[in-house]
């Protein structure tokens, strides 16, 4: 099992970020992943890091599908791969309805179809074998809909890519999206995962792999873990409990909470129902308090450094390829890498 580092969502000054990434590369950490919601984008910082690093892999976790056309994403992927000397991993995901519609002003519709067509087009554009023509339900190249000039023709990239097959990772949580990941992706960026419940959590993934005639080894499982290094395990749990309470309990009108679904897959259906009910009734403190200790222990890294390292070692017998830590603690990173 390898170790990865995920950068934060706050867009901190690069002088705060660079020393951590440079140290991660020095000690042999496998990869660094930029993140994206509605603050810093996931692309710009990797262009900078490509020039300041030599070995560490650079990935996006994730670039939001609704924020860019497939062609724009393909152009970005080819450019970052060139700048990094072939070290780029393209992590894609749909984000959530309130960000897609509230920030990007795009409809959150037909998510499975959109993801499948998007990945198809991105791969065709990067392969550069021919002009890209696509007649999908949601994407058509060339565009022939309302307002079209009617004069467009298929286009092939002007740029010869360094690699014609850049690895595509999908950020997926719900069973349908996880199954699609198994069918079409090179890697799975898992948002909620625990080795104790691996059989249940990977069942949709294996169904997708089987549909595509693929073997489990054809896809890398890469969970992104929240970390709270504290003096005691109890303090670490309490630091992350509000976040997990929100992830499991919050739900908007007409939206499905896939974190709730995964908590149920992990055997916490009763507790998840309680958290959601309390959240819906406005009792948020009670909802947070209802997050089970065992769920936090299994799906996050909490407590003092020795306890965190011991927990990381417990993941080594799982199917996980790369354990990605969402953290900035250099001492923790060094201890984890040394243990692995």
Structure description:
The chain is an alpha/beta fold. 45% of the residues lie in helices and 15% in strands. The chain is built from 15 helices and 12 strands. The chain has an 8-stranded parallel beta barrel, surrounded by 7 helices. Strands 6-7 form a two-stranded antiparallel sheet. Helix 1 (14-27) links the parallel strand 1 and strand 2. Helix 1 (14-27) runs parallel beside helix 15 (330-339), helix 5 packs parallel to helix 6 (175-184) and helix 10 packs antiparallel against helix 11. The longest helix has 17 residues, at 111-127. The mean pLDDT is 96.
Index terms:
15 helices, 340 residues, two-stranded antiparallel sheet, 45% helix, globular, single chain, 8-stranded parallel beta barrel, alpha/beta
């Amino acid at each position: 099992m390898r170790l990865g580092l995920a950068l934060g969502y706050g867009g901190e000054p690069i002088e705060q970020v660079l020393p951590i990434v440079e140290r991660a590369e020095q000690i042999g950490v496998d990869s660094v992943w930029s993140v994206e919601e509605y603050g810093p984008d996931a692309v710009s910082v990797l262009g900078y890091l490509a020039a300041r690093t030599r070995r560490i892999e650079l990935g996006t976790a994730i670039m939001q599908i609704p924020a860019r056309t497939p062609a724009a994403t393909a152009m970005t992927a080819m450019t970052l791969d060139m700048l990094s000397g072939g070290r780029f991993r393209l992590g894609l995901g749909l984000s959530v309805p309130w960000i897609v519609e509230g920030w990007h002003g795009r409809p959150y519709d037909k998510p499975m179809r959109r993801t499948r067509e998007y990945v198809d087009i991105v791969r065709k554009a990067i392969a550069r074998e021919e002009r890209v023509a696509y007649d999908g339900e949601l994407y058509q190249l060339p565009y022939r809909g309302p307002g079209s000039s009617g004069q467009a023709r298929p286009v092939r990239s002007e740029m010869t890519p360094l690699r014609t097959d850049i690895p595509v990772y999908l950020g997926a949580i719900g069973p349908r999206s996880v199954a699609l990941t198994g069918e079409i992706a090179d890697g799975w960026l898992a948002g909620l995962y625990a080795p104790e419940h691996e059989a249940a959590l990977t069942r949709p993934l294996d169904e997708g792999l089987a549909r595509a005639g693929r073997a489990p080894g054809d896809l890398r499982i890469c969970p992104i873990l929240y970390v709270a290094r504290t003096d005691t395990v109890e303090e670490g749990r309490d630091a992350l409990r509000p976040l997990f309470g929100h992830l499991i309990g919050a739900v908007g009108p007409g939206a499905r909470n896939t974190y709730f679904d995964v908590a149920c897959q992990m055997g916490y259906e009763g507790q998840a129902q309680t958290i959601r009910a309390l959240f819906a009734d406005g009792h948020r403190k009670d909802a947070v308090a209802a997050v089970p200790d065992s769920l936090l222990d299994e799906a996050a890294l909490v407590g003092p450094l020795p306890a965190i390292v011991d927990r990381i070692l417990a993941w080594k017998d799982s199917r996980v390829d790369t354990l990605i830590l969402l953290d900035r603690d250099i001492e923790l990173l060094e201890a984890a890498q040394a243990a692995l």
